Tetratricopeptide repeat protein
Amino acid sequence: MDKSLFQGKAAQKSSVYAGLQALVADEFENSRVSIRQMLQGLGIQHVDQTSSGKGVVEACRSRRYDIVLCDFRLTGGKNGQQVLEELRELQLLKPTNIFIIVSAETGRDVVMGIMESQPDEYLSKPFTQAVLARRLERQFLQTKALSSMKTLLANQKYQELIPLCAQHIEQQGRYAAWCKRTLVDAYLSIGALQELERLCQVELEQRDVDWALLGLARKYLEEDDLANAVSILQKVIQLFPQTISAYDLLASAYEKTGRLEDAQAVLDDAIKISPRIHKRQKHMASVSLANGDPQSALKASQQTVRLGINSIHENPDDYIQLVDIVAESASQVESSIERKRLLAEASQALTVVSKRFADDDSVKLRKTLAESRFHASQGQMREAQQSLKAAKQLASDLEGGLPQDLVVEYGKTLYNAGEHEQAETILASLVNDQSTSDALKQQAADFLDEPVSLGAKAQAKALNKEGLSYYSQKDYLKAIHEFKTALEVSPRHPGLNLNLVQTCLKLMEEKGNEPHMVAECVQAIQRLKHVSPSHKQYKRLSALKEYLTKHYKVMF
């Protein structure tokens, strides 16, 4: 752009920008000064500066800026992406605020992480005053046109927001695309699923659009129509492989349908594209754990902790989960040096919990329980009992007693420390308590089913898969061998035990009554005394018991 022409345009805009207040954050003083001069050249006279992420947060507490230009690299540990996430969480940004992340980073992981945090603009260094002017003008025009709608959106006044968005779309306004995307969220928030479907279908009649497909998928997820949700999300990923939110939604859908291996594979794909998202790594850790994959769980848990440091996302759950995963996976590490490093990492995580969350009594209890489980995993039973004793004292000192959401952790710790009977009693009471949430019931039931290490779970899972394969081929003897081998490492698992019973019964249908086979069935069912009427395998268990009683005169 011709310099004189640019200066003329800048002068025209100076009166528009004159009353605005801006904040510039950059670790280097010369960069801060340079950007400040650019802004002042555009007519923005009030420009504050800071070098740290903490400085940005504190500045935004004391003043509501119109424009924030924040570099990704800042002093003090907190980066620009973490600053934006924290400001939003603390509601320190005005709905009409223009937040621009500036960065010289070229790594795909950093760029994708920044884009997922959805700043209003992303500026790559170095940039000129003319580039900054164009970006600010674009954002200023959008903010001016959408000011009332953005304010309603921030205040969650969806009933008032929807007609304004619809009107802008009908008038073919410049920001119709923004309004359509916003309507998807608004309709979902108020449960207007038919309106949401109409909006998306109208768009999809013209062409495939990522937001419309995602909108439909989210609608199906809301209705628990997982098959249609999965189908659409698979299509989104095929057509728009950079639409990263589709991967997260698909993983959640797979998880709900019990397809945990598929969920882990999708999350792995997402992490390859954009690894610097705390929630995604945390999800990966939990799914990997459920799959009995301690190494993947460990890697994701380590990343979760690292991404939480200096961010609004940091919480004791991540550190405690890391301790538990290290306890599970350390024994499978061949290198003694690496094992020692891992154990030191777990000890450090416990220390961090003690220091950073020292004022929370429930966190103190959780940390002490995790400490007991950690010692037990290393065969240090005396130390495990000492920590458990301390945890029991902390639990008794808590006002109102042990919170229900900590009962599962407490039960696991008791079991790992050798107090099996008490652990089973506590967890069974949780499962049978009508006031217990479904999630907690499932956690307790899962542990009662399989109170073994991740390595044992993985081994049992693989053997069960082999057994099912032989069963489908009607090779019942080999299937029985695989199921019995699996039960040696995971003896309480309902699915395994019932698979063994069912296979024995199939074999006896062919060969007739064989007492040792009947005995196998009785022993398998006796191992399932912990299965309550609310358990997902209870109906199958009851049916097989009735069959044995009717055809083989077995009494239970």
About this structure: The radius of gyration is 29 Å. The chain has four domains: 3-147, 156-274, 315-449, 454-552.
